[in-house]
Amino acid sequence: MASNLDDTIREAAAKVRQYIEDAAVMQVRTFYVLTGTEELSKLDAERPGAFTEVKLDGDTKVVVPMRKGRDDSMELDEALFSIHERNVQAATDYRARVLGALIGLLQRR
Questions:
Q1: How far is 7 from 57, CA to CA, in rounded Å?
Q2: What is the value of pTM for the model shown?
Q3: Which strand ranges, in their side-by-side order, compose the sheet holding 47-55?
Q4: How many Å apart are CA 8 and CA 98, to the nearest integer?
Q5: From the CB of residue 10, how many other CB atoms can be counted at a distance below 10 Å?
Q6: Comparing C-alpha atoms, which of 31, 32, 35, 52 is closest to residue 43?
Q7: What is the 3-state secondary structure of the chain?
Q8: What backbone torsions phi and psi does residue 20 show, to the nearest 5 degrees?
Q9: What is the number of other CB atoms lying within 10 angstroms of the CB of residue 68?
Q10: What is the pLDDT of residues 66-98, one digit of tens each?
């Protein structure tokens, strides 16, 4: 019969395995809302502003926020993209810390 420690280790390993599978793809989505004088509850629904997907193998997809310029040319919405880049960096840092901690736990076993 397996001991409680064995069961706990198996459960922890299953959770680590699931986290690693989930961490294989990191998605960061940045949304915006149009604001005005309306009450907060009457704001327009959130709209997509930028999107980044990073896979563990390095494949990356980035959708950047663009708008029409004064001469109808397309230009990057730099303010929104700057916010999105900070969100991506925060998510990347967090994922690296968690994966590092998980690897450290596994190495001790």
A1: 32
A2: 0.71
A3: 25-32, 47-55, 60-63
A4: 20
A5: 11
A6: 35
A7: CCCHHHHHHHHHHHHHHHHHHHHCEEEEEEEECCCCCCCHHHCCCCEEEEEEEEECCCCEEEECCEEECCCCCEEECHHHHHHHHHHHHHHHHHHHHHHHHHHHHHHHC
A8: -65, -40
A9: 9
A10: 999 899 999 999 999 999 999 999 999 998 888
